[in-house]
Amino acid sequence: MTPETLVENIDRLVSFPDVCIKVNRMVESPNYSASQMAKILSQDVDISARLLRLVNSALFGLQSKVDTISRAVAVAGSDEVRSLVMATTAVRSFTGIPAELVNMEDFWRQSIMTGVMSQLLAEHTRTLHSERLFVMGMLHDVGRLVINLTQPEKAREVLLVTGGDDWVSAEAENESLGFNHMDVGAALMRAWGMPDGLEMVAGYHHRPAEAPEYRRDVSLVHIAWAVARGELAGFSVEEMMWAIDPTAWEETGLSAQAVTLFVEEMLTKSTETIDLILSPVSRIVSK
Description:
This protein is an all-alpha fold. The chain contains 20 helices and no strands. It has one domain: Orthogonal Bundle (Hypothetical protein af1432).
């Protein structure tokens, strides 16, 4: 068993909407237009509504309202739209995981918070195309879901050993499986044909010093992950900072003191996006 074999047949277990699959294939093809992508996206009310609200949210900070899918694709870019579609549909596509293994709402709440914080940290450090960090942060831990879905008994072993403590889960996974959720997450990003940066973040978010590429992006998500995880676990800001690899500070130019100053701002800005992605589509359309 390897990370690659776990994700080989993931499409049989994770039912992505047809629109999502078509968009993913379109981006991988040599010739396509924004209008063609918009036409496909418009076939799905749920995806269209969420995409429009995301592009019009504080995450993108646009000065004028985007009211059509074609404009959203033009503004955000086809690669970014593809990533946003994959990330938002993943929330509704990973089903059938036993509740005793993971609370799905808590999982996605932490993942979305990590995404929002990753983007805000990127903006703070003047990282180019900071909006891409949102999807990187949101999908960083998806390897956990693959393990829970495909290897529930092994996942139970890990849970018994760790007591649900994310800080030490990778070590327990290595003992039980011979690899960990980061290895699986990276394999999944490759299988989905996602950008290399997403693969690096999924594969190294606990260990930014080991990332062979995109180390700055990995470090930003690493810091965001520690803050989001600490916040949801009820830790103080000071307690959140102890788990951050010193490499992340070096790579980003940030410091514990600097991040502490705007933790509250990041938490506030996370709320809107969490509500947007986790809400039923009826609420999204009515707003």
